[in-house]
Design goal:
28% strand, 231 residues, 25% helix, alpha+beta, five-stranded antiparallel sheet
């Protein structure tokens, strides 16, 4: 799953994510550190280790309840995030908050993309001959203060590791040949983003649209291509 990514600094600070793209095991992780970068790196390692071990031993007992409405892969992905959440809380935040991570984790099973996440990035489906489709658009806390021009510093609303339990989102979508997934971490999304034609959805083109809409607002953009796994 080839990945393109870019960060734009703007006027305010937004941490650049740590990214893992493993085409062999079809696992993709985006971990945005709010605190030490080492926490994001450790989180990626914990999720990768548990998820891959669950593939090798499908009879292993999960430390968390499985959801009957989800597939085995979806449950394994959710469990991996829950284990990472407890790891951060126990090692970094038990006595005081020192670290948190926004996390997007995805895997591909056949032509089905399965993902679980806490916080940003927003997830969009870019399909040939179709408008950009929002699949999940988490907000950050700047939405609560949007009427104040001086309150544009990115501030996450939901993080891994700040509580022993975590409220995570899990979803899936069936991909077609030519489909791409656009990931975007940004406080707000300009209307012009949704009017982009298929030929204008490259990382470069979308970056220009976002920077033009508000040159002070930082963002991170990533794009996953699926030609090699869906052809």
């Amino acid at each position: 799953m080839p990945l393109e990514e870019r960060s734009y600094s703007g006027k305010f600070f937004r941490p650049r994510p740590e990214v893992l793209a493993d085409p062999q095991d079809q696992l993709f992780l985006v971990a945005t550190p709010w605190g030490p970068r080492s926490t994001a790196k450790k989180t990626i390692q914990v999720i990768q280790d548990h998820f891959l071990s669950s593939l090798e031993d499908q009879e292993a007992t999960s430390p968390f309840p499985t959801l009957s409405c989800l597939s085995a892969a979806e449950n394994n992905l959710r469990t991996s995030l829950q284990i990472a959440n407890q790891n951060i809380y126990r090692e970094d935040n038990r006595n005081e908050y020192t670290a948190g991570v926004e996390l997007f984790a995805a895997t591909l099973k056949g032509n089905e993309l399965i993902w679980a996440q806490v916080g940003q990035p927003a997830v969009f489906l870019s399909r040939p001959n179709s408008p950009l489709v929002p699949l999940n658009t988490p907000i950050d806390m700047t939405t609560d203060f949007a009427h104040k021009k001086n309150s544009l510093h990115p501030l996450p609303q939901t993080l891994l590791g700040i509580d022993p339990s975590v409220n995570l989102t899990s979803q899936s979508v069936r991909l077609h040949l030519g489909d791409e997934i656009l990931l975007l971490s940004r406080s707000t999304l300009p209307p012009s983003l949704f009017s982009l034609s298929e030929s204008d959805r490259s990382v470069d083109a979308v970056s220009r649209v976002l920077a033009k809409s508000d040159s002070e607002m930082p963002f991170w953009i990533g794009k996953i291509h699926f030609e090699s796994v869906l052809s």
